Amino acid sequence: MTTIAIVGRPNVGKSTLFNRLLGRRKAITHDRPGVTRDRIHGTVRLADRKITLIDTGGLDFEETEGIEAGIMSQAREAVLAADIVLLVVDGREGLNPIDERVAELLRESESTTLLIVNKVDGPEKADILTAEFHTMGLELEPVSSEHGYNIQDLKERLAEMLPEEDESALQDVEHGLKLAIVGRPNVGKSSLINAMLRENRLIVSPEAGTTRDAVDVVFEARGRRYTFVDTAGVRKRGRIDDSLEKLSVVRALGTAKRADVAILMTDATMRLALQDKKLLSYLDREKIPFFVVINKADLLDKEALRDVKKIMQNELRICPHVPVVFTSTVTRKGLKDLLPMAEAIIQECGIRVGTGEINRALADMTSHHQPPLIKGRRAKFYYMTQSDVMPPTFVFFVNDQEKVKASYARYLENQLRKRFGIRIAPVRLYFRASRGKKE
């Protein structure tokens, strides 16, 4: 499904535009540990096609190492998920340096971008309020999200910008699993694919950065079709100087997000680096189905291998459901486990539970372990539903989602996993305030 993301500074009218395009007000809050902003998702029809619309939080740089780091981390996530990016600016305030930096990032990533000059209340003001924004070098559209000016023209323009649907993908139901391999340079991503295929399909070199772009390798095994995607190694941001490599990193993470299953590959002989941990956090935060492959296990003795297992177990505390497979592209150790693991994860991602069973589970979970008291009151759960699969997504309707703390959300997730047999797939939870007054 095509995705359109709305990005921009705080208070430029992103949420108002989101609601205007959606045709209604909608907000679902993720209770994700370590994530300080909310994301709102909705579905809208454009040109007789279903489109996913994402409203992102305002770009906020207070808790980052610097403005550039904040722009990269915030805007990148929207770019990765989106086929089209709407960069919203404030026509009344005029051009802001942050607007220019985000625009530069979007141009560098080659995203399909449309500049939305918001708060233009009518055609008589359009030329004046958009004049200086033409210097950003992006196609633009003046609108008033609040008053509805030019919204219909914007919808028609977006319909023209939609990428063509892949007819072959629509017709070929049994297209097989798409597996994206991500990791730092030189951990053996290309070697792994060559070993799985038993041929030197990809170039393997000790020089870091050999793979510059995502490379698709289609093959058949066990009577099924698979597509391996070898991606560029993801380095620490401060070491990425070459603009081509920056683009490769963005595409690597984007490929992981669009794949059926991602494989995070590390090197058993190297200490788990900060970049490995960031990749792990990214995959978990985005609820991407994935597992960890620790390569070059043949180079370690038993004691060293035990130490690596302990380290990885400790790092996976944030997502203990994620499986770990030890491999060697030289001895072929563990290679036979990779495809069955991917199949098992994707099978769990498709689990759907009936509403009655879900709500019986909710009553049992909340009575067995009540939500904690927050300022003398507890969160009151009314009911829940499963809103989606791939991955399993559950929406809890409560009196006040602010009373559902991260620790209790983890308890609910663990209970859902035990009851419904979701052992190794990601699970997404939403907490939504029901209509009416908070209790």
Describe the structure.
With 439 residues, this protein is α/β, with parallel strands linked by helices. The chain has 13 helices and 16 strands. Helix 2 crosses helix 8. The two termini are 38 Å apart. About 15% of the residues have low confidence.
Topology:
Layout: E1 2-8, H1 14-22, E2 29-30, E3 40-46, E4 49-55, H2 67-81, E5 84-90, H3 97-108, E6 112-118, H4 123-130, E7 140-142, H5 151-161, H6 167-171, E8 177-183, H7 189-197, E9 215-221, E10 224-230, H8 243-258, E11 261-267, H9 274-285, E12 290-295, H10 302-315, E13 324-326, H11 338-349, H12 355-368, E14 381-388, E15 393-398, H13 406-420, E16 428-433
Parallel strand pairs: 1-4, 1-5, 5-6, 6-7, 8-10, 8-11, 11-12, 12-13, 15-16
Antiparallel strand pairs: 2-16, 3-4, 9-10, 14-15
Helix pairs in contact: 2-3, 2-8
Order of helices and strands: EHEEEHEHEHEHHEHEEHEHEHEHHEEHE
Annotation, overall tally of beta strands: 16
Strand order of the largest sheet: 3-4-1-5-6-7
Computed over alpha carbons, the radius of gyration is 23 Å
**How many helices does DSSP assign?**
13
**Shape, per Cα inertia axes:** globular
Low-confidence stretches: 26-39, 60-72, 167-175, 202-214, 233-248
What is the helix content? 25-40%
What is the overall pLDDT average? 80
**Strand fraction band?**
15-25%
Q: Which tags fit this structure?
A:
439 residues, alpha/beta, six-stranded mixed sheet, 13 helices, 22% strand, globular
